[in-house]
Structure formats: structure tokens, C-alpha cells
Amino acid sequence: MTDDRPRFTLGTAWPAGYQAMSSFTHAVNTSGLEENLIQLVYMRASQINGCAYCLDMHSKDARAAGETEQRLYALAAWRETPFFSVRERAALAFTEALTLVARTRLSEDVVDQATDCFSEDELAKLAFAIAEINAWNRLAIAARLEVGGYQPRAGARA
Fold this sequence. Notes:
Helix content: 55-70%
Order of helices and strands: HHHHHHHHH
Distance between the termini: 33 Å
Number of domains: 1
CATH topology: AhpD-like
Structural class: mainly alpha
CATH class: Mainly Alpha
Shape: globular
């Protein structure tokens, strides 16, 4: 049996680092990108990275923001469903490519799809959102954050 106890507490182990990441999250969440799109990006990257804590958190935040269970259940197989818009599909492909960049690189096809759906400003914000959730995934996995207790804040973006 593996040890499930947290290894360290992010906010107390290095408060300045945690505050910097929290500021990064705030910048992404107030960037003007659609909240549901950000939550889909967070969920898809977290699926790829195997971050249970972030999946728990962002599935709850997505539901609180009005996302449907059907779309969340189908997210891992988004290419095979009719549930996602062209813009969301471009964001999800971009998310996968950047999350797996060391393995797959960033193809021009993925970039072309994204630039067809996002302005230069929006594409930069999307790239920052993807970088942000990938960093949180790695921190949550490293700290072995306890899964299941997260509750979304009423009326607030995560």
C-alpha cells in the first residue's frame, strides 16, 4: 500500500511561491477568456497529467460554472463527440500539444486551427492558461495534495 499523506503543504512550505502561482491563476481567470473554456483546458491538461487533485477541483468548478456532466464525462474523448464547438476543439488540441510538447512538439496544424479561432491576444492567454495548469498539476502531484475535499467558492471563479 502506498502512502497517501501529503508530502508538504504548498501554501506554508513556500508562501512566496504559492502567492506567485495564485497571482498567475488570478491573471488567467481575469484574462477575458471564457470561464468554461478555461475549465475545459484545466480538466484536459489534468487528465493528461494524471492530477487527481486538479481533476476533482476543476470538475467541481466547471459544474459550478454551468458546465454539463455530459461534456465533462466525454472530455477525454472530445474528438469523438459532437459536444464541443470548433473554438473549444482548437483549444483542446492546443492544450494537448503544449501539455505533451516534449513528446509531440507543437505542430503547425494545431497552431493553424488555434489561430483560426483565437486572436493573437487570446492565443497568448490560452498558452498562459495551459502553462499555469501544467505547473499546478506538477505542484499538486509533488505535494500529494489530498483529493476530495475541495469545494468551489459560491459565485467566484476558481
